[in-house]
Design a protein that fits this description.
Bound molecules: iron/sulfur cluster
CATH topology of the largest domain in chain B: Rossmann fold
CATH topology of chain A: Ferritin
CATH class of the largest domain in chain B: Alpha Beta
CATH class of chain A: Mainly Alpha
Structural class of chain A: mainly alpha
Number of helices of chain A: 5
Radius of gyration of chain A: 18 Å
Low-confidence stretches of chain A: 1-5
Largest sheet of chain A: none
Helix content of chain B: 25-40%
Shape of chain A: elongated
Strand order of the largest sheet of chain B: 6-5-17-16-15-7-8
Distance between the termini of chain A: 59 Å
Number of domains of chain A: 1
Strand content of chain B: 15-25%
Number of strands of chain A: 0
CATH architecture of the largest domain in chain B: 3-Layer(aba) Sandwich
Oligomer: heterodimer
Low-confidence stretches of chain B: none
Mean pLDDT of chain B: 95
Shape of chain B: globular
Mean pLDDT of chain A: 86
Number of domains of chain B: 4
């Protein structure tokens, strides 16, 4: 199967991997920016972790399709920043009146990035079916469902935050 | 009688399975019995057990209490708080006049003037910034009629989504665990199931201290013939745990891993009721897959509990024929709260042990009237367990209230209190009215809370009987009548409703919250869609009639429950309908659950991450009257212990106090029994610091610090315990904020129930002084 799937599938693995790695970074950045918004900060940290796990699983699966993916070099600077934020989480400003709008902007970017990853999982699911790769399909179903939950979480957060950010002043 | 402060559970009255729990009448009178003029039926409001009691009155004052022998909840018994707590009503520092802040100082005012200030500011904020700038934070200690008035005013009158109860801190997870598994709030069991069970599975619940009369019932079974087996899950060696056959002394925050391992073992040993699972649940396959990796060895690794103990507990659960499980704060206020509480439901569901005598799960409540906050929609749900995403439900509510459906905010779930404080912080909530609760001591990370209230330019109204830490920050303080000084109903953790009638007049000018809310609605000129007054009630009984009518057809149907039925009864369990006028002992006896899409209270969540499901997603997996088995993998906590903060803080309750001691510290016996804050350490953790019993220690977290004498106890090493009751109002230097446990706690909450994680904080300790160098009360 791996032979017939060829380069195109390998590229899909690479894209999905990059998507998960980027999304993880994205969640971490939002967690950092929204340190005072605890209803965003902690879930984003969990979701970043989940993306890390997804990326790791993609790296395990990819070689069977001829793609060897290197783990991302974790940005130490970012890790340190998250650490620092954790210490001062609630002391940070984050009290500006436009905090709600900034939150919506962050969530919007996350939503788009997560949608991209969602689509890549759809593609990989189709590949797994066409290649009759049951093992891959099982993994894809599980991880894709988690990505969909991520999208749904972002939507949940947007829905509850939007009225206060846009209507109240 | 004073010995009942130490003899907490009283004399044993052992009994066997299926026997009625013997009566034992407890009483405390402060005058000669001959002087008692009247006994007024009521129930205790100092925990969620809801023990029936009669209030003794002489010369227009409460002079004592007596347990009601005919009451189904307590059969005459009262615990220390029930016996002595009422004396707070007579405390000399009761608020007797409204206070209004003038030139930075709270000064006495008359009601007219104080309400005028409240109404003027409400109007100004509403006119200028709209309803989203108004917020209300209520309690778990008022009556159903008061919550319903509050919900109608906030949701139907002002039209704000910002109404929550302090039930968010104590029972939000109970509510959501029930909703996620069974489709609706409402504890399925009856306390009589304790009389009938052969196994008790007590998870993160210390009834010996938090619900002492409930524990007396369990203890009587444990001392009787055919003793039930007892499994306790708790990091601390509590009085409850000491009676256990198996005590799983797990690491705080690892409930899900442990429960998954128990489920794993039940499945491995095939202790599953397959017919029940097939006919009455959905989701078993996913549950099986999710718990598959959680071997007892894996649980040992994550939870620090010996694998053999996990196996032993699973064997007991697997052998149980009548299993009663109970859950409280050790789950609700810990990491992955809802996910863990749901796994306890799953244990009962896969064993087919629900809706039958002796078989149930109690997702317990903390506060006495929390159930009513939830039923009335005064917390983060809609009245009558209605689904905010279901337009039919919302139209029905709008019709009952005679307002436009669009008036009632239902574009998102009602705002929870932690989010409200975020909106206050960012300036979009400008008016907050706090009723019968004390967020300045009970919310997490108090330094943050004080900063927000101080800096945000908030207008704060506080209704209370005392000048609490929160009231001291207020712009207007309204003096409230207490229990026994007003009439209303409330419901305990097994759906038992009591009517508590006014026995005496409130002191001075204090008024019931019910009267104050009605006055506010009148002065605000809140109207229905036809231009009539939004609220037409005069007395609590009028509100009760509308409230019970509002529940008609919903899972908490009380449409046939009247004051007359309740008056002098031994407690009545809802649903109470024309078909079941005497009430209903157990829910789901036909194993049909309220999960139908038209009926369900909420479409539910992803219990791991908290994403909300919508109608389409829900319908796609229509459970059609079956219960949900929702699975969750264990996730590591966000703030694990590390080198800087190597110990794990868990906060909690003690037997002699309730909430922030507003009442219990004003009862001489209770105050004397536990006058001072303390910190519980294990000898292993104390030793390297040279800390001995009674030494003054300081505890630091990343959020704050506190100082108190150490008490050494054999809990799980690495675990530090601090009671959450102690604040500052009775401190010599109330401005020195180093006493309240919530100085240390963090601002994080469960993604589903939004209950703060009070039991998940990394801390370090340091010795300050030897015991002998610390003058009592001076530290
Ligand atoms: S168990 Fe609870 S309700 Fe009963 S007397 Fe004690 S505090 Fe009151």
């Amino acid at each position: 199967m791996a032979e017939t799937a060829g380069n195109k599938t390998a590229r899909l693995f690479a894209e999905l991997h990059e998507g998960e790695v980027d999304l993880a970074q994205h969640y971490r950045r939002v967690a950092e920016r929204q340190a005072a918004d605890h209803g965003t900060h902690y879930p984003c940290r969990s979701l970043a972790q989940q993306c890390d796990e997804h990326a790791a699983r993609v790296r395990e699966l990819a070689p069977r399709y001829g793609e060897h993916l290197a783990p991302p070099r974790r940005s130490e600077r970012l890790d340190a920043a998250v650490g620092a934020v954790r210490q001062k989480a609630s002391e940070r400003a984050g009290t500006r009146p436009d905090a709600g709008l900034l939150l919506l902007r962050d969530l919007r970017e996350l939503f788009l990035a997560a949608q991209g990853v969602h689509l890549d999982w759809v593609l990989l699911g189709q590949v797994a079916q066409a290649a009759r790769d049951e093992e891959l399909l099982a993994d894809v179903s599980k991880l894709h469902a988690q990505t969909l939950s991520q999208v749904r979480w972002i939507e949940t957060r947007v829905k509850s935050a939007a009225p206060q950010a846009l209507v109240a002043d | 009688m004073t010995s009942r402060v130490t003899d907490v559970w009283g004399e044993r009255t052992p009994y066997g399975p299926g026997d009625p729990w013997p009566e034992r009448v407890d009483q405390h009178l402060t005058v000669d019995a001959a002087r008692v003029e009247r006994w007024v039926p009521s129930a205790c409001v100092l925990c969620s057990n809801g023990c029936g009691m009669d209030v003794a009155v002489a010369d227009g004052r409460v002079v004592g209490v007596r347990g009601r022998a005919e009451d189904r909840v307590n059969r005459g018994r009262l615990g220390p708080k029930g016996l002595y707590g009422w004396q707070a009503n007579h405390s000399a520092d009761r608020l007797t006049r409204p206070l209004v802040r003038v030139d930075g100082e709270l000064r006495p005012a008359d009601w007219d003037a104080a309400m005028a200030v409240v109404v003027e500011r409400s109007r100004a904020v509403l006119d200028e910034h709209g309803p989203l700038s108004m917020a209300f934070y209520t309690s778990g200690q008022l009556f159903a009629e008061e919550y319903y008035a509050q919900a109608l005013i906030a949701r139907g009158g002002i039209g704000t989504p910002h109404l929550d109860g302090n039930t968010r801190l104590c029972t939000a997870t109970s509510e959501w665990a029930l909703v996620e598994s069974f489709g609706s709030d409402g504890g399925p069991g009856s306390y009589e199931d304790v009389d009938l069970c052969d196994t008790l599975f007590v998870v993160g619940h210390n009834p010996a201290e938090t619900q002492t009369v409930q524990w007396a019932r369990m203890l009587d079974r444990l001392h009787g013939v055919a003793r039930p087996r007892l499994i306790v899950v708790d990091p601390r060696v509590t009085a409850t745990a000491r009676q256990a056959d198996v005590h799983l002394r797990l690491k705080p925050g690892t409930n899900v891993a442990l429960l998954n391992a128990l489920l794993h073992e039940l499945i491995r040993a095939d202790r599953i009721d397959h017919a029940f699972v097939r006919d009455h649940t959905v989701g078993f396959e996913e549950l099986r897959e999710t718990v598959a990796p959680y071997t007892p060895e894996k649980a040992e690794e994550i939870c620090g509990v010996p694998a053999e103990q996990v196996r032993e507990a699973a064997r007991i659960l697997g052998d149980a024929e009548r299993l009663v499980s109970t859950v409280l704060q050790g789950v609700y206020q810990s990491h992955q709260a809802t996910a863990a509480a749901v796994q306890v439901n799953n244990v009962n569901l896969v064993r087919g042990m629900i809706g039958r005598p002796g078989c149930t799960v109690f997702q317990m409540n903390g506060q006495p009237t929390a159930q009513n906050t939830r039923e009335a929609g005064a917390n983060g749900t809609m009245p009558g367990f209605r689904n905010w995403q279901n337009d039919t439900h919302m139209a029905e509510l709008a019709r009952l209230w005679n307002v436009e459906p669009s008036r009632i905010p239902h574009w998102a779930p009602p705002t929870h209190v932690m989010e409200m404080f975020r909106y206050i912080e960012t300036g979009s909530i400008r008016f907050l009215w706090v009723t019968a609760t004390n967020p300045a001591v009970s919310l997490p990370e108090l330094r943050r809370i004080r900063r927000i209230v101080r800096e945000a330019g908030l207008f704060l109204v506080v209704s209370d009987a005392f000048l609490t830490e929160t009231a001291q920050l207020a712009d207007v303080v309204l003096p409230a009548a207490l229990w026994a000084e007003k009439t209303g109903c409330f419901t305990n953790a097994d759906r038992t409703v009591h009517l508590s009638e006014k026995a005496v007049e409130p002191p001075g000018e204090a008024r019931s919250d019910f009267d104050v809310l009605l006055d506010y609605a009148r002065r605000m000129d809140l109207r229905d869609r036809d231009g009539g007054p939004l609220i037409t009630w005069e007395r609590p009984e009028d509100a009760w009639r509308d409230f019970t009518e509002m529940t008609r057809g919903r899972p908490c149907d009380q449409s046939a429950l009247t004051y007359d039925t309740l008056r002098g009864s031994g407690g009545v369990q809802w649903p109470v309908t024309e078909e079941a006028p005497e009430g209903t002992a157990r829910l789901y006896t036909d194993h049909h659950f309220p999960t139908h899409p038209e009926h369900v209270e909420d479409y539910g969540h992803d219990i791991v991450g908290g994403a909300q499901y919508d109608a389409d997603t829900y319908r796609a997996h229509d459970a059609a009257g079956r219960a949900f088995l929702k699975a969750a993998p264990y996730q590591p906590p966000h703030e694990p212990v590390d080198d800087d903060y190597p110990l794990q803080l868990t906060t909690g309750r003690t037997v002699h106090h309730f909430h922030t001691r507003t009442k219990t510290a004003r009862s001489p016996e209770l105050q004397e029994a536990a006058p001072e804050m303390w910190i519980e350490l294990t000898p292993q953790d104390a030793e390297p610091h040279g800390i001995a019993d009674g030494d003054l220690v300081r505890v630091y977290s990343r959020r704050g610090e506190l100082s108190a004498p150490a008490v050494l106890r054999g809990n799980r090493p690495g675990v530090v315990f601090a009671p959450f009751h102690y604040g500052y109002w009775d401190e010599a230097e109330p401005g020195r904020h180093i006493r309240a446990a919530n100085e240390l706690t963090r601002t994080e909450w469960d993604p589903v129930s939004k209950q703060p994680l009070f039991k998940q904080t990394a801390v370090r300790i340091e010795k300050v002084a030897d015991a002998r160098d610390v003058a009592p009360g001076r530290y």
